[in-house]
Amino acid sequence: MKRSTIKRPYVMAVVLGTALSVNAAPGQAAVQTPRETAQAIADMSRYCATCWRNAHLPLDSWSDCTQEVFRRLLERVPADAWEQALHGQGEEHREFLRAIDTVKKRIQRARKFAPAIDSVADRRDPQRRRLREEREVVDRAAAEVLSPRQQRILQMSFEGWSVQDMSQELRVPVERISDEKYKAIRKLRTHLLR
Fold first, then answer.
1. How far apart are CA 154 and CA 36, in angstroms?
2. Which of 57, 85, 119 is the last residue of a domain?
3. Rg of the Cα trace of the chain?
4. DSSP secondary structure code for residue 25 in this structure
5. What is the spatial distance between Cα 157 and Cα 153, in angstroms, rounded to a whole number?
6. Distance (Å, rounded) from C-alpha 70 to C-alpha 3?
7. Chain segment 64-111, per-residue pLDDT in tens
């Protein structure tokens, strides 16, 4: 078991114990948390875990979500009323459910929008990179085995030129362009497949 996984419940207990003991009036000693409050904390933690499981939140976020619920409760519900927060029907209970719902929805929204980034990602990049690498290999091989005119014909072909347009640009008959292109491809194929 990881060291941080073992310490997490203890850290949470220390934080909650400290926060609950600070609620004493100024000048008075901090009051120890009663057994009922400690039991309420444990029960609320289990209740939160069930909520996170039912909401299909990622397991690694459960403890953070539970701590966020307790943080919200510390701001809004007195520590001595935490027993009613879980079992009662009053404002404390509504505040507890509101805190759970708020945290749950925040995590779900974050998960909902995270995959959207993947859907708008440019998936052409790996394809472009592969195509560029293949063309670099062909260009190096062409420089080794082809004549300058054959290299130019292949380059123009890669760029989308038609045989007729190449013929006009290079002032070479169409038949000669086709023949040079065929010979160039055959030379490259032989060179690359060795």
1. 83
2. 119
3. 35
4. P
5. 6
6. 23
7. 999 999 898 888 888 777 777 777 788 888 888 899 999 999 888 887
Q: How many helices (H) and strands (E) does the chain have?
A: 9, 0
Tokens encoding 125: 């990049």
Contact 150, 183 (CB under 8 A): yes
Number of domains in the chain: 2
Distance CA 169, CA 172 (A): 8
The Cα 110–Cα 104 span in angstroms is 10
What amino acid occupies position 70?
F
Tokens of 123: 């998936």
Distance, CA of 167 to CA of 181 (rounded, Å): 12
Same domain, 107 and 155: no
Can you give the pTM of this predicted structure? 0.45
Q: Domain boundary residue among 70, 99, 119?
A: 119
Rounded CA-CA distance 174/45 in Å is 81
**Quick check: 141 and 192 in contact, CB under 8 A?**
yes
